[in-house]
Amino acid sequence: SWDRIAWSTRPADGAARIVARLEPSTAELRYRGFSALVRRAPNAPHAFDYARVATDSPWLPFPGRYTRFGDVRELLVDGDDRYVVMGAGDELALLFDARELPSPEPGFERTVFLESYGWDKDADRNTGEGLQVGPLPYRGMSSYPYGPGDAYPAELEAYVEEWLTRQVRPAATLLTAKRDRTRTDP
User: Fold this and answer.
1) What's the burial of 29, exposed, middle or buried (CB within 10 Å: 0-12/13-18/19+)?
2) Which of 30, 35, 77, 108 lies in disulfide reach of 48, CB 3.0 to 4.6 Å?
3) From CA 128, how far away is CA 134, in angstroms rounded?
4) What tens digit of pLDDT does each residue of 140-158 get?
C-alpha cells in the first residue's frame, strides 16, 4: 500500500525518491480473450480474474483497421499519433528490464506506474463515432469527431498501411470476428 501518490513536475517536499523511466524490452500485441468478471463484494467495482479467460467475445467488434499482431515496441517509443489500435480481446504484453535500477532503500518498496498516451473508444451511445474504429484521432485535431477543417494527416498514411493491417468488416458477426482474429488483410 502507499502512504501517498503525487504527480507533479516539481518535488513537493524533501522526501527521498528515485525516478526512472523504463522503455519496454518487449511489447507484443496478441489475441488473448476475456478475463472473467468478478465482484469481491456486492457493491464493489467490477474486477477481472486474469486466470479465467474465455475466447468468445461478448461484444461484436468495431469495424475498421486494427494493429497487426506481433512486436509493436516501435509504436510505443514516443507519444505521437502512431498508436497501437487494439480490438476487444486483444492484449498488449509488456516486459521491462529493471536490473539496471538501484535497489530500493531498506524498508521501501518499488512502485511502478504505467504512463500511456492514447485514446479510448467504446460503443457507448454518447461516444462520438462509437460504432467503428475510425476516424483515427490525432493530436492536432480541433475536436472528435473531427471539426471543420480537420482531416487525418497525410504523413500518417504510411503508418496506417504498415501497421493497421487487421481488417474487421462492417458486417462482422461473432463467427467472422473469430476468423478475422487470425487473418491479416492487406
Assistant:
1) buried
2) 35
3) 10
4) 999 999 999 999 999 999 9
Taking only the tens place, the pLDDT of each residue in 33-76 is 999 999 999 999 999 999 999 988 888 888 999 999 999 999 99
Number of residues assigned to the chain: 186
Q: What is the 3-state secondary structure (H, E, C) of the chain?
A: CCCCCCCCCCCCCCCCCCCCCCCCCEEEEEECCEEEEECCCCCCCCEEEEEEEECCCCCCCCCEEECCCEECHHHHCCCCCCCCCCCCCEEEEEECCCCCCCCCCCCCCCCCCCCCCCCCCCCCCCCCCCCCCCCCCCCCCCCCCCCCCCCCCHHHHHHHHHHCCEEECCCCCHHHHHHHHCCCCC
pTM metric for this prediction: 0.79
